[in-house]
Design goal:
The structure is a homodimer. Chain A has about 425 residues and is of the alpha/beta class. Chain A has 14 helices and 17 strands. In chain A, the strands form four sheets. A six-stranded mixed sheet of chain A has the order 2-1-3-8-7-6, with helices on both faces. In chain A, strand 7 and strand 8 form a beta hairpin. In chain A, helix 2 crosses helix 3 and helix 9 runs parallel beside helix 14. The first copy, chain A, starts with 6 loop residues before the first strand and ends with a helix.
């Protein structure tokens, strides 16, 4: 059996060696490599220094079969990836008139004259395959060396992204050899990681532990399922795994698409129901409304919202009766319900979300610690309520509270859709 | 002159080679290294594989004088940084009873028995200096090899952080040799990077181009000034540079502290003035309110806000007259002014922000392209207005619009403070 191909990544750029920035291009490259069954054995970052780039490139070629270099193909004097590769592999740089012409015509199309510095980008390594870059001036390069392969890509993220699809994927499809991998993501809201882990334990036994990965962020879990093999087998296995996991985790699975956030799914349900929503928030300060309106086209179902920090605003804008505020306190079930119903009534929406809580660090009172959050959802003549004590700092409490509110609305929308059917 | 010391970083952990996670420990290490004038020449990540770790470590020692390794010191079988270092440097691993005793007593203090696996953490490299780790079981190690130095640190961020202060900083203070560096950050709102660059050009000549770095995000620029030398010289030079740059950039400098966001500074000004603010937003969907309330204690000056997506809400909640909406359209100066004044009046605040625009991708009309944003600020009996066509996608337009609104309020607060003085 041929040992599987291993990849190494080299990001070039002095700005990536400071205390502020990380090389994120490697994540995009890794995603594609893993999809074709090629693991990454070494990632590295060097500055715009010819000697350092050449040394690291030689080292990468000693440990990996496929080396992907990003950055250092620009027009300025500190872009030296081409020169460093020439040194590392002992090859010449050749000037190509056709590439210069392509670069010059790109500038012309934008109504500009090509600056003299861009001439440098028309140099290519002897024996290299030139990879067109429709989104920028620097072409990419592919070289073979002792049975190993080196790609040079531009470092500008959207240029790189285009070239991954155009150049890297077709090459991997042909050469990766290993079985291609395919993934499906189930997204799960407001269930602790340990509970998800426990719920899906049977699936670990049935499908193998390495086929299922859990990625957790605040109140949001991605269950990533992976399958190898031929296209048909893969998609059959993924369908089977998705079904099984959705069954084990239950209603908390809000989407089977990696890219669908909870606010997107809630929007889809509202749109499908032809319904509208309004919000009345206190401690989240507008985060629920802000999340709902991140989705393009949300004006179709989002009517508006109120951020009611001061009690007077809760009363005057949302009709929360002063006696209720006085008797129960601003952070209470009664006020959450009044906010949700006030949002419905005063903003003329079918559904209303009411949210009040203590995000911290200050504001705790006896019996109401930091993280206490009351959420109510009003709609179809019924208001439901939940209370939780959410963990974490101010930012995390606010994030979790908004997630809790959106998830409650999603469940209500699901039930009402079932009831209507 | 001795060539300056260069550092290399190696993060160990297979989880850092996937498509989801980046090694962020290197940023903390880099920050400290740069403070002591030690540049990083190579950063790298390898998986939990003895051969790969050893190969990369040898390579790092060939290009750097100081090598910092994080991760792979844990108790489980896949933690092999100690073994890999032994291989790379040709040294023995020695079992240390005193370290085992320290680990066991740590477990005892937590009321637990030490698992057998933790015995592995009592092995140290021959000739290594042992670095106590008060926050975890794995001690760190420091080794000298051919005039070069290797540190092995745990990868758990809070354990590492403690050891940076306890072990790395004192070592750097003694050995870095180069002059220590100190930085000051000026933060600048809503000025394009190219304009800032042009404005500060004289300072490049006066202080040297490599002393000033520009870092730009949406509507927010950090000007980072760096000075070397003795403590007194450094702070004098930084004070001088800050003054000069603040003078060149002008009022757009909103803070001289790295950690102060625009919403924090606006909050400080409101608090100082004993004034309150309310918001009335359309296309930002609550983002301005959400940003203002990210700041702990913002309930002292933030009264509340309205997110008025539907025209009916603009009218009923904020008193925008239907005729104005009809005549000028929802995205207009007149509506922005009415929103700002409505927020002031109806939410009983001293200041009101009104914001309306087209975040896209849909919603453009002839003469009102995507990105058109009107912002008005009402207060002290006067309403000011600005319009802009902001570039970028939905997320960027919303971010820039919220920045524009907060910056307008900041300028108004500054003028009113001057007028009051």
């Amino acid at each position: 059996m041929i040992p599987p191909m291993r990849a190494g990544i080299l990001a070039v750029g002095s700005e990536l060696l400071g205390a502020d920035r990380l090389d994120t291009n490697s994540l995009k490259l890794t995603e594609v490599l893993l999809r074709y069954g090629v693991p990454v054995c070494l990632k590295s970052v060097v500055g715009d220094c010819e000697t350092d780039i050449a040394a690291q490139l030689r080292h990468l070629l000693s440990v990996a079969d496929l080396v992907l270099v990003t950055g250092g193909l620009g027009p300025t004097a500190d872009d030296v990836s081409r020169e460093a590769t020439a040194v590392a592999l002992g090859r010449n740089l050749v000037f190509r008139d056709d590439i210069l012409a392509a670069i010059a015509s790109r500038f012309e199309r934008m109504g500009r004259t090509m600056p003299e510095v861009n001439r440098r980008q028309a140099f290519v390594l002897e024996g290299a395959t030139i990879l067109a870059n429709p989104k920028g001036t620097a072409p990419g390069l592919r070289l073979e060396e002792d049975g190993k392969t080196v790609f040079l890509f531009p470092g500008v993220p959207h240029e790189l992204l285009g070239m991954i699809g155009r150049n890297l994927e077709p090459w991997l499809r042909e050469h990766a050899g290993a079985e291609a991998l395919e993934t499906v993501t189930l997204r799960v809201a407001m269930v602790p990681e340990s509970e998800v882990e426990e719920a899906i334990a049977p699936a670990y036994l049935e499908f193998g532990r390495d086929r299922i990965t859990i990625l957790a962020t605040a109140g949001d879990i991605r269950l990533r399922l992976t399958a190898a093999g031929q296209a048909v087998e893969r998609s059959q296995l993924l369908a089977q795994m998705s079904e099984r996991l959705a069954c084990l985790v239950g209603q908390a699975v809000y989407s089977r698409r990696e890219e669908d956030d909870l606010e997107t799914v809630v929007g889809q349900l509202l749109r499908a129901a032809g319904a509208t929503v309004a919000t009345a928030e206190s401690c989240t300060g507008g985060l629920v409304a802000e999340r709902l309106t991140r989705v393009a086209g949300s004006s179709d179902y989002f009517v508006g919202g109120a951020v009611a920090y001061a009690n007077r605003v809760k009363h005057e804008l949302l009709g929360v009766v002063p006696e209720v505020l006085k008797e129960h306190g601003a952070v209470s079930e009664a006020v959450a319900r009044a906010l949700a119903e006030g949002a419905c009534r005063l903003l003329h929406a079918d559904w209303g979300i009411g949210l009040t809580g203590i995000a911290g660090p200050g504001g705790a009172t006896p019996g109401k610690p930091v993280g206490t959050v009351h959420v109510a959802v009003a709609g179809l003549g019924q208001t439901t309520h939940r209370v939780a004590c959410l963990p974490g700092d101010r930012e995390r409490v606010r994030q979790l509270a908004s997630q809790m509110a959106l998830e409650m609305l999603r469940r209500r929308l699901l039930s009402s859709a079932v009831a209507a059917a």
